[in-house]
Design goal:
This protein has 514 residues and is an alpha/beta fold. Helices cover 45% and strands 11% of the residues. It has twelve helices and 14 strands. The longest helix is centred in the N-terminal third of the chain and has 61 residues. The termini are far apart. 33% of the residues are buried.
């Protein structure tokens, strides 16, 4: 009886139970497979959080985009997003293999190697779990692939959008620069080269890293994040007046500071041409002082554009007020004397260049004056005392004129050499205007015969230069070279109250009117 029970009834009962168990195999396998898929999704979400947000060492497979030569954090969609996607692909694959392998190992250990129940029950159950794991592993592949595909599609779309935004912002910034009359960039007041976009120092006092190009792109769209985490505007139009950064020239041979207003408004370049001691510096000082007087009387506002110009004008104002004479301009290349005139949309950055007269005599010296090729208005300072005819017509009985105050360079020589150099630089003089400032009018007040009958009239001054000083050839050359020529008799002096001679105001208004 025991043999019948052992070899017939028990096996038959086992087979019956096994057949009954087979009815539940699909359900058990499906549940185990679903559990594996859920585990993989949960682990993937943790991986996603770790890669995109936590960024702790265990989630960093690829080093971040922070090479030693970069001074700012990259915009997320200009490299880091693709890097994170690559990390998800790399670590997601490892996560998938590790999770599935660990699941199989647990089933093997619990159901085959060291089962907690009889093997007759653990083996079928283990095989069912194996089946479920296989189904779950297969089912998880398209699910995880779909998530990664959606992530990759999102990165691609957002990256394309970020680049499109960057190009749009750059185009808008470019359009604004063109509307401001700066298609080739702004002028460096030190090296006279055009700067497409200045370099800017980080505004944080403890950092001061210099950023060569802050425009929208790799390192930010609307704001650039410095390596010190300071935020820097990426567009000139995003810099308010109080938040304008100090720019620097990007040319290797220069690197000096530029005007804080550079790029924020149209620029006007006003070169002063004349021989040594012709009165250029005195006239420049009187021009700015005259504009300051006009602003005090309700005219357009004026402010000096940089500390160097402010310091120089302070000294020049003192010279004007004591009716002294400025010292000769140094032969070294000058820095522009810059000021901002007007307010709101009428603001304009004016660069006045006062260059030593010696540079207009030697061709090698004049070639360094690259700012001339950017000018559309020129000022020729003509010292009448530098003309021989002036002294032959001098009345010996009249007040004495100090000959030591006269320029030692012939105006015709200075003008012809200057025009030749400007022409070789590619400047269209026929499209430019020329203001001829006859200087030192104040020294000739006691010699009425040596002054035009109507000093404030351009035609009268022209006739006087032709007939009295014999400069007919010089004036004919001016008319041939320039599109428009205007003559002014100027007295670059101020009275005790700091008011500049009215002749300078008329001259300045014509020069700054476009």
């Amino acid at each position: 009886m025991s043999d019948i029970l052992r070899f017939i009834i028990v096996p038959a009962l086992y087979l019956a139970l096994l057949l009954l168990y087979l009815l539940f195999v699909p359900v058990i396998a499906a549940l185990r497979g679903a559990a594996l898929v859920s585990e993989l999704l949960w682990r993937y979400c943790r991986l996603l959080n770790g890669v995109l947000r936590l960024r702790t060492p265990e989630f960093v497979t690829i080093p971040p985009y922070r090479p030693a030569d970069e001074r700012a954090h990259r915009n997320y969609f200009f490299g880091p997003a693709t890097r994170d996607l690559r990390q998800l692909l790399m670590q997601g694959r490892r996560l998938y293999v590790r999770t599935v392998t660990d699941a199989y190992r647990r089933v093997t250990a619990d159901q085959f190697t060291a089962p907690s129940m009889h093997r007759s029950a653990s083996v079928p159950y283990g095989l069912t779990l194996y089946l479920g794991l296989g189904v779950g592993a297969a089912a998880a592949v398209p699910v995880l692939g779909l998530l990664l595909g959606l992530h990759a599609l999102g990165v691609a779309l957002l990256t394309a959008g970020a680049r499109l935004i960057a190009l749009t912002l750059r185009a808008a910034d470019r359009a604004v620069m063109i509307l401001r009359g700066l298609p080739r960039g702004m002028l460096c007041p030190s090296c006279f080269e055009r700067v497409p976009y200045p370099a800017y120092d980080c505004p944080r006092a403890t950092c001061r890293r210099r950023h060569a190009d802050i425009r929208p792109g790799t390192f930010g769209l609307f704001r650039r994040r410095c390596a010190c985490d300071e935020r820097i505007p990426t567009l000139l139009m995003l810099m308010s007046r109080d938040a304008r950064l100090s720019g620097y020239c990007v040319h290797e041979h220069c690197g000096k500071s530029m005007n804080p207003d550079a790029g924020h408004m149209p620029e006007l370049i006003l070169p002063l041409i004349g021989g040594r001691a012709a009165g250029k510096t005195q006239l420049m000082a009187a021009m700015v002082k005259s504009l300051e007087n006009t602003a005090e009387n309700g005219g357009p506002a004026i402010r000096l554009a940089d500390p160097e110009s402010t310091a120089n004008q302070r000294v020049l104002n003192e010279v004007l007020e004591i009716q002294g004479h400025t010292r000769p301009t140094q032969k070294t290349l000058p820095r522009a004397h810059s000021f901002v005139r007007g307010s709101g949309r009428a603001e304009r950055l004016v660069h006045v260049f006062d260059t030593a007269g010696e540079r207009f005599v030697n061709r090698e010296e004049t070639d360094a004056l690259r700012y001339i090729r950017e000018a559309r208005i020129f000022v020729f300072v003509l010292d009448p005392m530098a003309v021989d005819a002036f002294w032959t017509r001098l009345d010996p009985a009249g007040p004495k004129v100090d000959r030591t105050l006269a320029s030692t360079v012939d105006p015709e020589d200075v003008f012809s050499r200057s025009v030749q150099t400007v022409r070789t630089m590619g400047t269209r003089l026929d499209k430019a205007r020329l203001a001829v400032a006859v200087s030192k009018r104040d020294l000739l007040t006691g010699q009425p015969a040596l002054l035009p009958d109507r000093p404030d009239d351009s035609d009268t001054t022209r006739d006087w230069l032709c007939e009295r000083l014999g400069l007919r050839n010089l004036l004919r050359t001016m008319d041939l070279e320039f599109g428009e020529v205007r003559f002014f008799c100027t007295a670059a002096v101020a009275d005790e109250e700091g008011r500049v001679d009215p002749s300078v105001g008329v001259f300045v208004d014509w020069c700054l009117h476009e």
